[in-house]
Amino acid sequence: MEHIVPITGYVHFFLVLFVPLHPRYDPVHGRAFAGTRPHKQKWRQGIMNRRRAMLAIAGSTTCALFPELGNAQAAWPSKPIKLVVPYPAGAISDYLGRYIGRVLSTELGTPVVVENKPGAGTNIGSDSVAKAAPDGYTLLLASSTNAVNVTLFPKLTYSPTRDLTPISIIADVPNCLVVNRDFKANTVADLIKAAKSDPGGLAYASAGPGSPAHLAAEMFNRMAGVQIRNISYKGASPAMADVIAGHVPIVFSHLAAVRGAYDAGKVKILAVASKSRWPVLPNIPTIAESGVAGYEAGAWYGLMAPAGTPKPILDRLQAALSKMRTPATAEAIRQQGADLRISGAEDLKTRLDSDIKTYAALIKTAGIVVE
User: Fold this and answer.
1) Comparing C-alpha atoms, which of 245, 253, 256 is closest to residue 180?
2) Does residue 211 share a domain with residue 251?
3) Residue ranges of the alpha helices (H) in 166-296?
4) CATH number of residue 292's parent domain
5) Partner of 237 at 20 to 30 A CA spacing, among 63, 230, 274, 318?
6) Is the domain of 306 the same as that of 283?
């Protein structure tokens, strides 16, 4: 009830101010003129003069009463922006987050502080942004993991579709199918043949339940008609280390995590999990062209803000991100195993909604649960 008096006061103010300015209002009798008869012309002329003067006063008065209407969004940003990366430092997500931070800082003229906030499969960092003030000063480097977690965590403390608003997809990060250098398979066809000859005998390493590597491998199992069992690790690094050491023969990984070992000859990349071959690895085929038609698996990263963030702020953020559409930026991100994709809010919303459904079906079919 405390808001009724001020609002009523403002309504009364505008009624008192503007109703007498109507060209057919009779200020003596407090009613509208019935017409424009000659004896009323002097009244009308006087009123029109008063109207011009009082409109000028009204403009100044309104600005004084409601300064926040013109200043709140026009002043943004007036302080540093925080970009939450819900992953540990050093990963492809961290690289993208810091690259985005530099671009936004340059374009918006304010510092952008990248805060790594990992934990609970990105839920800790994502939840903190979902619950932040929708003022444009807290942003999230979102990913396809946000779509996965809707099903993977039945008691998720936030909703990526209701509590966050999309700004744009930043990049796609396809996986690649990697094996130890001494593993007998040199092609996807070799791997499928080996797996079918020994159902459940082969194993792949993953970064844990519901991780991109886990989902990519389970999708491969179903689409290739094989049974390769999962060995979960606490993170991508120990999973890759055991594949390099030969303890586990297979892993799905993004290029940035495997490039060093591949260049050193410690692992083989049998195929990439994208629609087309990667420009940085032109001689390596896709999984789809290697016999598993339609196979495509990877992650995406995008920028999101708390739900309710004003549209003018979202528009400025999108405009700033569009400056990343340069050959130099595309090449820098490509060298990290990602494809630049500044596609806007609608594309991110569509991808998020689609992935929630896709991963829900895969997680339920594969019986994936968080340990």
Assistant:
1) 245
2) yes
3) 188-197, 212-224, 236-245, 255-263
4) 3.40.190.10
5) 274
6) no
Angle between helices 212-224 and 345-366 (to 10 degrees): 60
CA–CA dist 270, 285 (Å, integer) = 8
What is the pTM (predicted TM-score) of this model? 0.78
Is residue 315 one of the residues assigned to a domain? yes
User: Could you tell me if residue 116 is left (phi over 0), alpha (psi between -120 and 50 degrees) or otherwise beta?
Assistant: beta
Domain boundary at 46, 70, 94, which?
70
Residue 95 lies in a domain: yes
pLDDT in tens, the chain (371 residues): 333 334 444 444 444 344 444 444 444 444 444 444 444 455 455 554 555 445 444 444 444 444 444 454 569 999 999 999 999 998 899 999 999 999 999 999 999 999 999 999 999 999 999 999 999 999 999 999 999 999 999 999 999 999 999 999 999 999 999 999 999 999 999 999 999 999 999 999 999 899 999 999 999 999 999 999 999 998 889 999 999 999 999 999 998 889 999 999 999 999 999 999 998 899 999 999 999 999 999 899 999 999 999 999 999 999 999 999 999 999 999 988 899 999 999 999 999 999 999 999 999 999 999 86
* Cα 46 from Cα 23, distance rounded (Å): 10
Q: Examine the domain organization and report whether 194 and 120 are in the same domain.
A: no
341: region left, alpha or beta (phi > 0 left; psi from -120 to 50 alpha): beta
Instruction: Classify each residue of 195-217 as buried b or exposed e, where b means 16 or more C-beta atoms within 10 Å of its C-beta.
Output: beeeeeebbbbbbbbbbbbbbbb
Residues 179 and 262 in one domain: yes
Same domain, 255 and 283: yes
User: In terms of domains, do 179 and 129 share one?
Assistant: no
Range of the domain at 335: 81-173+301-366
What does R_g of the chain's alpha carbons equal in angstroms? Answer: 30
Other Cβ atoms closer than 10 A to 91: 19
Show which of 298, 325, 354 is a domain's final residue.
Answer: 298
Domain identity same for 273 and 290: yes
